[in-house]
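Tutorial handout. Part one gives the primary structure; part two gives the three-dimensional structure as tokens.
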Amino acid sequence: MRNWGLHLLLVLFLFVQHGTNIKVSADNEFISSNGVHFILNGSYYYANGFNAYWLMVVASDPSQTDKVSSLFQEAVSNGLALARTWAFNDGGSQALQFSPGVYNEQMFQGLDFVIYEAGRYGIKLILSLVNNYKDYGGKSQYVNWARDQGQSISSDDDFYTNSLVKGFYKNHINTVLNRRNSITGVSYKDDNTIMAWELMNEARCTSDPSGNTLQAWITEMASYVKSVDTKHLLEVGLEGFYGESAPADKQFNLTVKLGTDFIANNQIPSIDFATIHLYPDQWIPDSDEETQQAFSENWINTHIQDTRAILQKPLLVAEFGWKNTGFDTKTREELLRSVYSDIYLSARCGGVAAGSMFWQLLAEGLDSYRDGYEVVLDESHTTACLISEQSQKLIRIREMFARRRHTKENETMNNNVGC
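Part two.
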């Protein structure tokens, strides 16, 4: 277990080393939603962002915390203002949760540092609470814990229906949301550095393609999150595959039946915004580059249209990427351009597409986390330029809407004086 005093000394050292160079954001309110828009400090919020799922684990090692700081510093220097990462690691040697309700304080202090450091750099966080997959434990670990306690479990999808498993998960929600940060003293549920909670990374329930099981689980768990935390936004963690509520759009499902329903799942009142993911190299691997790019364009624009017309909530492209094998880096940059263009065209008109978060931003010296999708900004000047340009475009859009709001307020004040 890490010595808390040494951890605090490390934080103070990093502040002395880097603090004078940090431009702390004035965006110090909670992000909320109103119709199709995110709202921050009274104005529309659009942001470019990234995924870095490994932040908590790396930050739990005092010798590696500088890599978290350098990543945030690099991100801010390229205008990135939003990060998505794991607030889970279930079972195993580096677990956050060793067993149901038994937590690793050293790992929790790593997450404390991630939240603290993101706040210093003005980066908002989306924190995911469990994985659909076995990586970092996930729903498989939860059902195994229930099996160990004598429960009759037929598949990992019993995660969504078994009362004991659901109790384990609710306890994790309660523990994380009520965690008091060992550095700031602020409970996570009261920390405005956190933008939103995510129920599950890429939630799927293949045993029930009707979607009823997952719909009931989302409804129950979303309500529970809101009973604990009324200040933060909440999203499901969906990839965007359609269900029975939009049969015409099921053409995009690539013949897979995952038990998700982009429309119905996101219509649940406690869900504040919609998300989609995009991996054309994985989803249609036997297609040529042109076909994959065309699919990407249709995928994003269809979801923008449906989110605007039906859901009337904001939309984030919460994950997208292209593995740097088979095609060269220019191919990945074409995907970046395509996604960024679709986001920008929507955002500049005040549309539902509020931003995107590529998978994944990686700091130098963390080669064990390379997965072929990693973006190390110093390794590709053209990729870094694309990311920075998109960030600046969205920043200018935010400033534009802020000026419009200010002008309208002044006009209202003048009109009132005139009356």
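Part three, for discussion. Residues 143 and 158 are 7 Å apart (CA to CA). Confidence is low (pLDDT under 50) at residues 1-26, 410-419.
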